[in-house]
Structure formats: structure tokens, C-alpha cells
Design brief:
Elements (H helix, E strand, L loop, with lengths): L4 H12 L3 E4 L3 H6 L6 H15 L5 E4 L1 H5 L2 H17 L3 E8 L3 H11 L10 E4 L9 H9 L3 E7 L6 H4 L9 H13 L8 E5 L17 E3 L9 H8 L6 E5 L1 H4 L5 H16 L1
Parallel strand pairs: 1-2, 1-8, 2-3, 3-4, 4-5, 5-6, 6-7, 7-8
Helix pairs in contact: 3-5, 3-12, 6-7
């Protein structure tokens, strides 16, 4: 039986540290690398990035939208990125932010996390804003295949607060209720559950109680969006397991030179463990 995502993530972080390195082929980055904004440029950018990053970090996080923008050829490049990452020993967290109900969500699960999925990732980001219960079947499918899901809870974009900090009748915020739903799915799983949450490293200290989560925390906002190592420790503490600081542009801007990219990764990793 395949080990669960939480167990495999724990092992990968112990071996390589907690950094989650994004692969975001933004048109501006392609241009900065001197590449054309077409499928050829996408392929050169993405494969250069993954070949450097995946040999050093625990998790790589391709942003699916930047590949989808090029249609079927872009999806083919994404598939190659995922294959290269796995060959180098990194886990793949595919940033797709899917969220729907019923058979539509089942189809997304079949695409990304089911056994034999054509775009299989070790975990995917999902949106619980049609209700966390709409993701129950996806969680079941992912777990059966040894994969995970990471639910959007309290994201790093400023405009998210109006919805995510709205207070429910039970006195909890929407974001806290999502964390609590994830904690219920993870209850009793060791060493770490397979259902995680996205919580920005830029959010105020103490806004969420993550103590019972027992699952991964993807922490965007680190690096280019302004959050520092001190912010990570302020928001998440020093000992919370499963926190994955996510950095993409702050590393990728050092390309296309593979040596400069590699040095950037090492600097970030050292800052997280120093």
C-alpha cells in the first residue's frame, strides 16, 4: 500500500528541509529570462527550473494556470515537469485550486489525485468555498491513492480577509472552520495527516488556531510578497510540524543561469534552518 501524503511529506522534509519551491512560468519571468512567451519558452523555463529545484527541495509547486494558458501543449509541458520532479525525488504539489460539487468535483479528482490519474500529483490545492463537505469524496479518493489535498483557508492576498475572516454563527471565522474541518479528517493519522490548509505567512499572529490541524500548512507570501523568516516564526511558531514556506518568484528571478538558481535555493533553505 502506498504511504499517505502526510507520511511521505514528513520524510521528504526531514531529508531536504521544508521549502516548497514554486514553478510559475509567468510571462514576465519568461521575458526576464530572455525567452519567448510561447510553448517553446514555457518548456525551456519550466524544465530548467524543475531540473534545478527538484534535486534539492522537498516539494515543487507548479502553478497549473501558467501551463494551461498554452492549451494542450502547455499541459504536456506540465506533465513533463511533474515527471522530472518525481525522478529527482521531490514531491509535486500541483497548484490548481479546484472546487466544485458532485460529479464535477469527482472528475477533478479523477484528473489529479485518483489512482491512475493522467495529471497525477502528490497533492493538489483545492477550494472549500462551496463547503468543505463538497471535498469529502476528493479527500477519500486522494487518500486511497496515497495523495493529499491542501484547502484554501486564509490566503495571503489582502482582499481575502472580507470572506475568510467573516464570522459564522458558531463564533468562528470561515478560515478557522476550514482548518477545523481539515483537523477532523486528520484526526489520529500519524505522523501527519493528508489534508492541509493554505495560510499566508503575511496574516496577523494568532488569527488562526492550528494546534489541532495535524496536517500540512502551505504558507505563501514568503519572499517576493514580503514575508520573512521572522514572520513565519511569528505566525506559525518554531515547532509546528508540516509548515511549508512557499517561494517562487524570489528564486526564479535568478534564472536562467542554473548555477544562480541553485545558489538562490541554497540561500533560502539556509535562511529557514538558521
Amino acid at each position: 500500500m502506498t504511504a499517505g501524503f502526510g507520511a511521505r511529506l514528513t520524510e521528504a522534509v526531514l531529508a531536504r528541509g521544508p521549502l516548497c519551491a514554486g514553478i510559475d512560468p509567468h510571462p514576465g519571468l519568461l521575458d526576464a529570462w530572455g525567452l519567448p512567451v510561447d510553448v517553446g519558452g514555457l518548456e525551456k523555463f519550466a524544465l530548467t527550473a524543475v531540473d534545478v529545484l527538484a534535486e534539492r527541495v522537498a516539494v515543487v509547486k507548479p502553478q497549473s494556470a501558467f501551463f494551461e494558458a498554452f492549451g494542450a501543449p502547455g499541459i504536456a509541458v506540465l506533465t513533463r515537469v511533474q515527471e522530472h520532479a518525481r525522478e529527482a525525488g521531490a514531491l509535486v504539489l500541483l497548484d490548481v485550486k479546484r472546487g466544485d460539487i458532485g460529479s464535477t468535483m469527482d472528475a477533478y479528482a479523477a484528473a489529479y489525485v485518483a489512482e491512475g490519474a493522467p495529471l497525477a500529483a502528490d497533492a493538489v490545492t483545492v477550494s472549500p468555498y462551496l463547503g468543505s463537505g463538497s471535498l469529502a469524496r476528493t479527500v477519500e479518493i486522494a487518500r486511497a491513492a496515497g495523495r493529499g489535498v491542501i484547502m484554501l483557508a486564509r490566503t495571503s492576498n489582502p482582499e481575502s480577509a472580507a470572506v475568510q475572516n467573516a464570522v459564522l454563527r458558531n463564533g468562528k471565522t470561515v478560515a478557522q472552520s476550514i482548518v477545523d474541518d481539515a483537523a477532523r479528517w486528520n484526526d489520529g493519522v500519524t505522523p501527519l495527516g493528508d489534508v492541509g490548509v493554505v495560510v499566508g505567512a503575511t496574516v496577523p499572529e494568532g488569527e488562526l488556531d492550528l494546534g489541532e490541524l495535524n496536517g500540512p500548512v502551505l504558507a505563501p507570501g514568503f519572499g517576493a510578497q514580503g514575508a520573512t523568516v521572522a514572520d513565519l516564526r511569528r505566525v506559525f511558531g518554531k515547532d509546528l510540524p508540516g509548515v511549508l514556506p512557499a517561494s517562487s518568484r524570489d528564486i526564479l528571478r535568478h534564472g536562467p543561469d542554473p548555477v544562480a538558481l541553485r545558489e538562490a535555493v541554497v540561500r533560502v533553505q539556509e535562511s529557514l534552518t538558521g
